[in-house]
Specification:
single chain; mainly alpha; iron; monooxygenase
Length: about 375
Amino acid sequence: MGHDPFREAGSDTFVLATPSGNMLWSSDDTVIRGLFEQHPKVDAPVEFLKFWNVWGPTIASVQGAEWKVHRKAVTAGFGPAMNHTVWKETLSQTQKLATHWTEDHQAIVPVVRYWTSRLALHIICNGFFGMKVEWNADNQKSLPTGHKIALDAALPKFIENLAVFVTVPTALLSRLPVKKFRDTYENFTEITTYLDEFRAKVLNNVEAVPAKKSKTILESVVLSEVSEKNPLAKETHQIPENTLTLINNAGAARNPKTWKRSKISKERRNALSDSPALDFDPDRWLDEKDQRLANWTAFGAGGRVCPGKEFANIELTAAMATLFKLYSLELVVVKENDETDDMAWKRTRDQAIRMFYDDMEANITIGVHKDIPIRIVERVV
């Protein structure tokens, strides 16, 4: 839908009045930023976020004093030492990934999303748990005693099937004769065991861990839990109290009042599904006045801004800098029938542009659910 409902309504913000209460829906950057920045006066509707509580309450699903305790515990692990760890690990993992692509896959990468997700997972495993994950599965160390699945294999599979875990009672997952259910339960129990083991390891070294210059996120959270007295756990409009407000990310990301649109004919836009890729303009961020444009979309803002924002920014910067310093990434072009090279390239490019609208999938992450093969080419210096 994108911004279409708001254009048809003639407003970027409107209120739906229902018997169960009012609901405000907005794609306006100013309104959304105001909602974020009024925390805790405006808070998250945690009753709708209980699905995050896989292993207990989380920073996203609690409010008030309990939220403060959670945030203090989580943010304790983010800082200069962790930023340094993320930068070094991202450079190392990205270079190893590029080498893996060129040596083991003949420089052709048919499913980019799989590899970029694994790259993020490798870096998170190192920053959160102190685990070093390698790309070549043949070089993986034997599984720890009592485990059937490696943590870096169980995590992405569980996240992929999170909807199954949320909707099917845990007691039934291992009993019902459905492979996806049983696999989800097995991944859940494996991850739970790993987390319990990591926590026990920190507690067994609780006197030595505080002296470490660089702690993992998990070490910082466990130490915070141990040390805390209360462990984990132009016009204006007045929005009525107890109004549920919905931030429309898709609408805000396509709002022409916020984002300048490229000069492309209506016919061309229609042919390419009016894909957001047509308006991709990284140069906009070089202008200081534009640097606050809807920058809440990925990490939130205000009091509930994601504590891992800097972690993710460093990871992304290091990965992109490493890749594009040493390599070029190209679409894999395959000519059909009597196409010229130029015709084949334009068809492949247009197909990729359309996919960035027609084939987007939003789950815990947002990405293209179909494959866009790319070729990695080493730069000649």
